[in-house]
Amino acid sequence: MNAIAQAEPSATVAGSAPATPIVRTRGIHKVYGGTVHALKDINLEFKRGELTSLLGPSGCGKTTLLKIIAGLLEPTEGEVEVNGKPVTGPGPERAFVFQDFALMPWATVLRNAAFGLELQGVNRSEREERARHYVNEVGLSGFEDKYPHELSGGMRQRVGLARALAVDADVLLMDEPFSAVDEQTRRKFQEDLIHLRERENKTFILVTHSIEEAVYLSDRIVLLSPRPGRVGQVIDPEIERKGDPDAIRRAPEYLDLTDEIWRGLREYVE
Ligand SMILES: Nc1ncnc2c1ncn2[C@@H]1O[C@H](COP(=O)(O)OP(=O)(O)OP(=O)(O)O)[C@@H](O)[C@H]1O
What we know:
single chain, binds adenosine-5'-triphosphate, alpha/beta, 9 helices, 270 residues, 2 domains, seven-stranded mixed sheet, Rossmann fold
């Protein structure tokens, strides 16, 4: 059974494992330019070590919420706390993986992966060692000296992820991390992300348009309503992910939940 909680977002969802919240949003509102009310009263808790997807119709404020959590954007009202401290801007405990990967075209994979550490002033040998470890971790071993133009979209995306992992942030914020790659790459990367998350014990918050992806990957799905984005539902998919990835996609609980979410979202697009 999947636990679906109706719009009591700060409440702990029934059936979820007890874990400490690492990120909290309290009463977040965002109004752009005094007129566009993008987010309304977002109260959420993100537990340490969990992967949460932000899902909802186009324009409901998913990216806005992610950027507010990242400290890249200020809320109009409300606040974000990370490890109990209010967020006033970007911080080392959060790493943002950009949709367009934000790689430097003139730098090698290794240097791109080490870039966050370079910004932090970590010395060259240490940052290269750490970057090498994460380039390997994301499956790019042997590509350290290549340049972004020599890589496929999926590989570039992995470099972006290696960069975020290398700074050893507690929270990885990913804006549609799989949107720019083909279906096969997307599936493979989703599988790899599940394994990576198990190994690294990081907290992932990702924005997605894909119901299937959210159900496949997430410990928790936050469904946002159309603008102004509010928390419509918090869903806790209880999917056993240890087995064959293709079997998971055929499992009745996976199919039932994707269908249930679609039925909920469908009214927004009709
Ligand atoms: N800088 C901005 N100035 C004015 N309005 C903005 C700005 N950024 C976003 N918006 C508006 O705020 C709303 C939420 O945008 P946001 O990009 O957060 O939504 P989203 O759910 O991520 O959308 P999508 O799924 O299409 O990527 C949209 O209506 C968008 O047009």
